[in-house]
Design brief:
The chain is α+β, with helices and mostly antiparallel strands. Helix content is 33%, strand content 38%.
């Protein structure tokens, strides 16, 4: 019996009950979140926060990090842009990548105003 099986048995849950499955999924996501955050910190990335939400019946966790050129190196072609928006003279691009099944997001900003002399 694996660690979660022992965990469920100690609480009187059948391993295949809906509650046991939900608990197992939550535990897996929390462990993946921890692994992703530790991985980011070890690579020198500032973790700003995280949020969770249910999307079409599937729980999702998103970790928000500070923008850095380092992100493109550590994700090495595994990141892509999600959306773009314009705010005044600033173009803001939201990027994302996955680590340990956890979505990592950051925003890059670029000034689009022409230089005036």
């Amino acid at each position: 019996m694996g660690p979660l099986g022992t965990f469920h048995a100690a609480r009187g849950l059948a391993a295949d009950s809906p509650r046991a499955k939900a608990l197992s999924n939550a535990t897996t996501q929390i462990i993946n979140l921890l692994r992703a955050v530790v991985w980011l910190i070890r690579h020198g990335v500032y973790v700003a926060g995280f949020s969770g939400r249910s999307q079409n019946g599937v729980d999702r966790i998103v970790v928000t990090v500070a923008a850095s050129p380092l992100l493109y190196r550590i994700f090495d072609g595994r990141c892509c842009w999600l959306k773009q928006r314009q705010e005044g003279d600033m173009r803001i691009v939201t990027w994302f990548a996955f680590q340990n099944d956890i979505r990592i997001e950051w925003e890059d900003t670029t000034c689009t105003a022409s230089r005036r002399r």
